[in-house]
């Protein structure tokens, strides 16, 4: 599908490859690809179209693919977690999984010849990775404490699932939405603290009351890219929960049919909104929806600071608790996944949840079982009360697996935080986000301190460095941070962060803290 305004000749390379063959077509070729082996598969299918079924060729580790799941609202059963753990386990030292900044999992080390069997297993437990990459709608995020939060406004679980089912034809794949102009992000907030970062999504639903009815104000166009980052703007629309799926469909159809396709750097939804103006965009969406939209409620219900859910919290159900475990930079191995599945089954209700901070929540733990859960050895690795700097650390994949990366991120982030923690004591968590390149998968713009990978020159040599972002505000009155200093060599980062933490975040050198206490 091409926009009426875009002549075929000026289509970019990705539009051309989609026009030649829809990405979803590779779903029917997986057995054939498995037999051929990764080196013999057509390059365009292997490097691009396979992403339509969540299979990512990794140029950094050729032959070892990444599988990006879809986990609506970040929720999975322990049976599903075990299947994922078994998949990762097959690959020994190459196998691992990362919790992503979209409340999702990516599996690593995957061999193409195993894909048919892996997908068969996924299907048997209701898992899918369809349409999780390239010009598709990404994992749909929702409140990680949906249905258990004592102060929740709206339980987002069912709606998130319904929106995913509409987009993916219940996980089977839906060619109506496999040729968007670009990626598309959707979030549904259900709590008072905006724990989905609604403002950085192309389409987001934020709880708001109108005429005494709880529904959602709608915001549109939020995105990060290497060239431009923008927070979502109001559509000036309020919808009741039963219109969320239809409105999501209408917005996607408008974007699909009219979104800009000539230049991939200018293809995200906000560029169309810019071209049309929000009023025209709203009118076209209404037309697509088939009825007028109510204007937005005067105010939304986001009035809390953002929570990170690390620790033990009583649920709305008396006698039950949710336990938030810190997973350092979201990295899991097969053993960890089996352990998490086991504790969720033994102490909880057989459910594991993920957060956009790359952590895990075990819900539904009865008061009587808390102490035994907290004494489990796995909680030494995945703590409920990590040091404040570790607690709020987020990192994208970086150069270990990502070919866009300009720097190594996850291991460096952990090592640096440990070194800083050894020297400083912090009164509260400071949200430090690492991202390996300007694509901003690690969301440095929402952090207290954001670090974006770049190349610098140090002593006449090329070296890994970062641009420093500050001022990201999350939760109530969320605001994007901006770049305050460019080109800091990673080697020089520790003293700079140390000073910053002392001057702006109340950190105290450990010796001084010990004397004054
Ligand atoms: Fe991302 C591309 C990883 C969240 C903006 N992102 C990529 C690729 C697929 C590039 C590639 O093929 O190597 C990365 C895969 C590396 C790997 O092997 O893991 C990648 N993105 C990630 C993840 C895994 C980061 C993480 O460690 O958590 C996140 C997966 C989310 C998921 O489960 O689907 C991830 N990416 C994001 C976010 C954050 C968010 O959604 O809140 C953003 C910024 C928000 C946005 O998109 O508006 C983001 N990723 C990008 C972009 C820039 C998009 C643009 O419009 O220019 C790219 C590059 C692109 O699409 O051309 C990209
Ligand atoms: Fe890769 Fe860059 Fe995204 Fe990090 S920010 S995962 S380095 S594309």
TrEMBL record:
UniProt xrefs under SUPFAM superfamilies: Nitrite and sulphite reductase 4Fe-4S domain-like, Nitrite/Sulfite reductase N-terminal domain-like
Keywords noted in UniProt: 4Fe-4S, Heme, Iron, Iron-sulfur, Metal-binding, Oxidoreductase
Residue intervals of the Nitrite/sulphite reductase 4Fe-4S domain: 134-292, 392-485
Signal peptide boundaries: none
Domain (Nitrite/Sulfite reductase ferredoxin-like): residue spans on this chain: 63-124, 314-376
PROSITE patterns assigned: NIR_SIR
GO molecular function: 4 iron, 4 sulfur cluster binding; ferredoxin-nitrite reductase activity; heme binding; metal ion binding
Domain of life: Bacteria
InterPro entries on file: Cbl_synth_CobG-like, NIR_SIR_4Fe-4S, NiRdtase/SiRdtase_haem-b_fer, Nit/Sulf_reduc_fer-like_dom_sf, NO2/SO3_Rdtase_4Fe4S_dom, NO2/SO3_Rdtase_4Fe4S_sf, NO2/SO3_Rdtase_FeS/sirohaem_BS
EC class name: oxidoreductase
Enzyme Commission numbers on file: 1.7.7.1
Family under the similarity heading: Belongs to the nitrite and sulfite reductase 4Fe-4S domain family.
Record's protein name: Ferredoxin--nitrite reductase
Organism: Symplocastrum torsivum CPER-KK1
Classification of source organism: Bacteria, Bacillati, Cyanobacteriota, Cyanophyceae, Oscillatoriophycideae
């Amino acid at each position: 599908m091409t926009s009426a305004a875009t002549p075929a000749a000026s289509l970019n390379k990705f539009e051309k490859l989609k026009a030649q063959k829809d990405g979803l077509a590779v779903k029917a070729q997986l057995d054939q690809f498995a037999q051929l082996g990764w080196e013999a598969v057509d390059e365009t299918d292997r490097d691009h179209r396979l992403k339509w079924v969540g299979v990512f060729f990794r140029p950094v580790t050729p032959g070892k693919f990444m599988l990006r799941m879809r986990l609506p609202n970040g929720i999975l059963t322990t049976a599903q977690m075990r299947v994922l753990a078994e998949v990762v386990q097959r690959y020994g030292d190459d196998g691992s999984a990362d919790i992503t900044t979209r409340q999702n999992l990516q599996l690593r080390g995957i061999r193409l010849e195993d894909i048919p069997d892996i997908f068969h297993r996924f299907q048997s437990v209701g898992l899918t990775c369809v349409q999780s990459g390239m010009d598709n709608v990404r994992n749909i995020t929702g409140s990680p404490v949906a249905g258990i939060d004592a102060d929740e406004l709206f339980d987002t679980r069912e709606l998130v699932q319904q929106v995913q089912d509409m987009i993916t034809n219940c996980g089977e794949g839906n060619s109506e939405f496999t040729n968007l102009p670009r990626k598309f992000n959707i979030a549904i907030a259900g709590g008072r603290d905006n724990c989905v970062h609604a403002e950085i999504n192309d389409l987001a639903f934020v709880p708001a009351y109108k005429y005494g009815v709880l529904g959602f104000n709608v915001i549109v166009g939020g995105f990060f890219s290497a060239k431009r980052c923008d927070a979502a703007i109001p559509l000036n629309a309020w919808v009741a929960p039963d219109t969320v799926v239809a409105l999501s469909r209408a917005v996607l159809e408008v974007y699909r049919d009219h979104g800009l396709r000539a230049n991939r750097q200018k293809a995200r939804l906000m560029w169309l909104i810019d071209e049309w103006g929000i009023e025209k965009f709203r009118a076209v969406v209404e037309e697509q929806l088939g009825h007028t939209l109510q204007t937005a409620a005067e105010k939304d219900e986001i009035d809390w600071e953002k929570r990170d859910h690390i620790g033990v919290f009583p649920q709305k159900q008396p006698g039950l608790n949710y336990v938030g475990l810190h997973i350092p930079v979201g990295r899991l191995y097969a053993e960890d996944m089996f352990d998490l599945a086991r504790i969720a089954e033994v102490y909880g209700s057989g459910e594991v949840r993920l957060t956009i901070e790359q952590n895990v929540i075990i819900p539904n733990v009865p008061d009587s079982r808390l102490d035994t859960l907290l004494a489990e050895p796995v909680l030494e690795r995945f703590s409920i009360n990590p040091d404040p700097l570790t607690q709020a650390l987020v990192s994208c994949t970086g150069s270990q697996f990502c070919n866009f990366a300009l720097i190594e991120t996850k291991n460096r982030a952990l090592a640096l935080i440990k070194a800083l923690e050894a020297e400083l004591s912090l009164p509260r968590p400071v949200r430090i986000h690492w991202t390996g390149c300007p694509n901003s998968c690690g969301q440095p713009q929402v952090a207290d301190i954001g670090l974006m990978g770049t190349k610098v020159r140090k002593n006449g040599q090329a070296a890994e460095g970062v641009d420093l972002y500050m001022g990201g505000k999350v939760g109530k009155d969320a605001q994007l941070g901006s770049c305050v200093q460019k080109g800091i060599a990673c080697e020089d980062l520790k003293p700079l962060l140390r000073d910053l933490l002392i001057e702006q975040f109340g950190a105290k050198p450990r010796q001084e803290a010990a004397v004054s206490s």
